[in-house]
C-alpha cells in the first residue's frame, strides 16, 4: 500500500534466506541520525511546559499574565492561573504546524525521497530552535515554534519509513520501537533540562532550554546529507540498477537477490494501487484502517500531550511549588520511558493484543482517577 509514500515488503517465502543480512555501519549511522528525529520530537513536546512556568520567560513575554497571577483576587482559582491564549498558542502551534506539514511531507517523501524530508525537517528544527533560543519578541517565539512543528511533520513522516526500509528484516520491529523510545527520551531530557535551567544566572534559563534543541537538530541536518537513500525509495523513483547497488551496499553483501525481488514486488503492487483512499475504506481492509488511523487517532485523543506539554504547569495549577512541579514532570517523563522499555521488552512475550488491552485498561483507570482528583482538588 502506497498511501503516504513508501511500501511494505511482501513476504515471498525467501525471508529466512536474507534475514541474517549484516547490520552494517550504514544501518548503525542511519539509526543514530534517525534517533535524533525522535529525540527532537520528544524534546519539543516536553520543553514548553517548563519554560512557560519560568518567571523570567513570563516577565519578558507575558508580563500582564504574571502580574495577574501575582495579584490574585480571592475569586480566582488555581486553575485559571495560566489562562492566556497566546501562551497556549506558543505551546500548541507545534502540533498545528506539524499537522499541515505532514501532508506536504508525505508527498515530498514519496516523490523526492526520505533524505530530502529529513534534511527539510532538520533545517526546520534548527531554525526553530535558534529563533526560540534568541527570541526577543513573541513573534519570534511563535514563528520558531511553528518551524519546530514543520520539523515534526517532516521527520515523523520520513524517519520511521527510513528506519523500516534501511533495517534488515530481523531488527526492523526493534528499530521502529527505538524511534518511540527516542521520543520518550527526548521528553525526559526536556523535563530534566527544565529542572536545571531555572537556577541559571541572568535569566538565561528559558533561552538555554529552548535553544538546546539546536544540538540534535544540527546532528540530524548534517547527518541527513551523508545518509544513503533507501533502496525502496530509489526504486519507487524508477532506478532499478541503483536501487540494487544501494541494497548491496547497505547490507554489506552482493547476495541480496531475494530481498531485492521482494522489494521490487512490493513496489510493483504499490504502484498498481489506483485508489488507495477508497481501497482503505473497503470492509476487507477494516483491520488495517483501524490500526493505521483509529488507534493512533484515539491514542492522541486520550489527551496524553496535555500531560506531556503542560506537566509542570498542571502540577502548579493544582498547588505544587515551583521545584515540586518540575521534579514531578521529570518523574512523569521517567515513567513514560520505563513503560516504553517494559513494552519493548514484553511485546514478544505477551503479543501486540495483550499490550493493547493492558495499555487500554491503564488509560481508562488513570483517566478516571485523574479526573476525580482534579474535581476534588
Ligand atoms: O510517549 C508519549 C508520546 O508519544 C507520542 O504519542 C508519539 O508516539 C506523543 O504524542 C506522546 O507525547
From TrEMBL:
One of its GO terms (cellular component) is membrane. Coiled coil: none annotated. GO terms for molecular function: monosaccharide transmembrane transporter activity; symporter activity. It is a multi-pass membrane protein. Residues 30-377 form the Major facilitator superfamily (MFS) profile domain. It comes from the Eukaryota. InterPro entries: MFS_dom, MFS_STP/MST-like_plant, MFS_sugar_transport-like, MFS_trans_sf, STP/PLT_plant, Sugar/inositol_transpt, Sugar_transporter_CS. The chain crosses the membrane at residues 23-43, 86-104, 116-136, 142-163, 175-196, 208-227, 289-313, 325-347. Keywords: Membrane, Sugar transport, Symport, Transmembrane, Transmembrane helix, Transport. It is found in: Membrane. PANTHER family: SOLUTE CARRIER FAMILY 2, FACILITATED GLUCOSE TRANSPORTER, SUGAR TRANSPORT PROTEIN 11. Belongs to the major facilitator superfamily. Sugar transporter (TC 2.A.1.1) family. This is Major facilitator superfamily (MFS) profile domain-containing protein. It comes from Brassica campestris (Field mustard).
